[in-house]
Amino acid sequence: MSVVLDDRFARELPELGVAWRAETPPDPRLLVLNESLAARLGLNAEWLRSPNGLRFLAGDLVPDGAAPVAQAYAGHQFGGLVPRLGDGRALLLGELADDQGCVRDIALKGSGATPFARGGDGLAAVGPMLREYIVSEAMHALGVPTTRSLAVLSTGRPVRREEVLPGAVLLRVASSHLRVGSFQYAALTGDVDLLRRLADHAIARHYPDAAQAQRPYLALFQAVAAAQASLIARWMSIGFVHGVMNTDNMTISGETIDYGPCAFMDAYHPETVFSSIDQWGRYAYTNQPAIAGWNLARFAETLLPLLADSIEEGIALAEESFDVFRTEYENTWSSGMRAKLGLPPDIHAEVVASLVDELLGLLTESRVDYTSFFRHLADAARGDAEPARGLFANLAGFDTWLSSWKALGPDADSMDRANPIYIPRNHLVEEALTAATAGDLHPVQQLLTAVSAPYDQRPGFERYAEPAPADFGEYQTFCGT
Ligand code: AMP
Ligand code: MG
């Protein structure tokens, strides 16, 4: 078979990319292949496993029509602006329409240093690339908008980190790789025509209705604000901590991107931080909605020359538009929590909100495992409250809450459809990655099987539903691995 890719991004926005080629890996071997995603992209899995398929997956065989580029973007990293970041170790190979007719970016991560590498080696290790594969596929199965992973290859090239590790390349599939940082980069050039072309490209690709609006660029801003609000609310409802919400890691599409230091909370605590470099807790669990708002303000700033005739009018319009963010966030969060608690639609939103607030206070106080709690709570709705009660130190507090909740008539079966039993728990991810780095892929495959059907309890997967053992300790994650 032969793959044909489009080069629309490279053609329409040449200022935002540098033509580049992936390094040829000395000994490429397929570690995982996402066959269902391959099918959706019209790619034949058997061919992908062949020598030419492997060359395609490694970026070595450039498909017809493709013009691979390292994308240029800026970004606020932990609040400080870096005007020129860009893909230091990634490449956009090109675009492909999937079986729904949606255009998808096909991109590589770990494919060698580009002109944006800033002294980095441009490489990636097997562990972190499999981590992105596992967590992004879990997010997809949980119904959270996300970039996806088509494959991870080991390259046969060692990567120097604190120790020498086996190198890998990940093939990432995304609605696009346009980020807030792409707009920051375009705005910083001072070239309003480039900014407008970028905005038009984003509208055509993600929000075509905005083109018909009275103010298309304001409509673009509002659409991105709504998509991000709904995304962050979903993260919050599943206990996901992204860990590095820099503006270069916030997409225009509203997909989760960049699975570096991310992790799921075990014990519920609003201040949870996993990333080793986030000493101030800027990207702590509870801060994520506010940080998304801050990032969107940076996005709005870039659009000011396009929003209205004067900058003042543009600022006023953008400020009003933040209501879209607040409303969408509240709606997605409250409907998500209503579903997790199995509450019928006729229960008033304020009743749900106060029940949720009380519950989160109790979970924090007793450091309750967030994910398994809700499955135990479904059992409580069925009449067996003991597993849930057993999680609380403040039993009297929980009992009071439990009786107010039960009085509202929760539906246990719908709770089981809203509350995952299997998530990529930190201790399981670490265990699987350690084994894979040593050459044993079985634990990765098992974990993928569990998290790819997160709501379906299956025999043999009991340990995948359990919280980390007590001796697992504080979990720390790392950037740029
Ligand atoms: P991240 O925090 O992972 O989004 O990465 C921030 C920036 O660092 C991006 O521009 C990446 O391309 C770049 N980067 C991260 N790791 C490496 C690496 N090993 N080599 C080159 N660039 C890197
Ligand atoms: Mg990034």
UniProtKB/TrEMBL annotation:
The keyword Manganese applies. It is an enzyme of class 2 (transferase). ATP binds at G86, G88, R89, K109, D121, G122, R172, R179, D258. InterPro entries: SelO. The active site is at D248 (proton acceptor). Its EC number is 2.7.7.-, 2.7.7.108. Keywords: ATP-binding, Magnesium, Manganese, Metal-binding, Nucleotide-binding, Nucleotidyltransferase, Transferase. It catalyses: L-tyrosyl-[protein] + UTP = O-(5'-uridylyl)-L-tyrosyl-[protein] + diphosphate; L-threonyl-[protein] + ATP = 3-O-(5'-adenylyl)-L-threonyl-[protein] + diphosphate; L-seryl-[protein] + ATP = 3-O-(5'-adenylyl)-L-seryl-[protein] + diphosphate; L-tyrosyl-[protein] + ATP = O-(5'-adenylyl)-L-tyrosyl-[protein] + diphosphate. Mg(2+) binds at N249, D258. Its cofactor is Mg(2+); Mn(2+). One of its GO terms (molecular function) is magnesium ion binding. Belongs to the SELO family. Nucleotidyltransferase involved in the post-translational modification of proteins. It can catalyze the addition of adenosine monophosphate (AMP) or uridine monophosphate (UMP) to a protein, resulting in modifications known as AMPylation and UMPylation. NCBIfam families: PRK00029.1. This is Protein nucleotidyltransferase YdiU. It comes from Mycobacterium rhizamassiliense. The gene is ydiU.
